[in-house]
Amino acid sequence: MGPATSTRDIFIQTMADGKAAIEGPKDPCRMVYAIFFWLGIGTLLPWNMFITVNAYWAHKYSPKNISVLWENGTSIDQQTEDLSAIWTGYLAVASMVPNVIFLILNGVFGHRFKTQPRMLVSLVFVILLFVFTSVMVQVDTDLWQSTFMYVTLASVVVININAAIFQGGILGVAGKFPPAYMGAVFSGQAVGGIFASGTNVVVLALGASPTQAAFFCFVLSVIFMGTALIAFMVSTRSEFYKHYLGEVATSTEMPDDHKLLETSPDHKVKIPVKVSPLSVLARIWTFGLAVLLTFLVTLGCFPAITVRVESTAEAGEWSTKFFIPVCCFLLFNVGDYIGRFLAGLIQWPRPGKLGGVLTLFFSILRVCFIPLFLICNAAPEHRELTSVLLKSDTAYIILMSLFSISNGYLGSICMINAPQVVLNEEAQTAASLMVALLGIGLGTGAFLSNFFVKLL
Question: In CATH, what is the architecture of 273-456?
Answer without folding.
Answer: Up-down Bundle (1.20)
